[in-house]
Amino acid sequence: xxxxxxxxxxxxxxxxxxxxxxxxxxxxxxxxxxxxxxxxxxxxxxxxxxxxxxxxxxxxxxxxxxxxxxxxxxxxxxxxxxxxxxxxxxxxxxxxxxxxxxxxxxxxxxxxxxxxxxxxxxxxxxxxxxxxxxxx
Length: 136
Description:
By secondary structure, the chain is α+β, with helices and mostly antiparallel strands.
């Protein structure tokens, strides 16, 4: 089954996008460093967002299935751009994990998170270092 996302240019370097299945909408805007006002996610920001949310989502799926506590997990991803040609150069990410996980639980979730579909879809020329932090 294909998922359909539609978009319509709304002027001033902005696009309104819609997830057709849910009806959820959001705006994108050209970034400050490329003639835009930075008032919303840029298209390349959404790539970084997709990576972070995918890693956490697949880990949450595994945690739910295996009875591993996962509430409070979070991510921080940085998007670094290259200039010539203009493209995403690196997406370093830190996942902050919940406290109290066993070594086995940590290893299981890290393995799952490191192989999410978005990560597998990103071109290998884009650096995607992934770090896990544990509060204990």
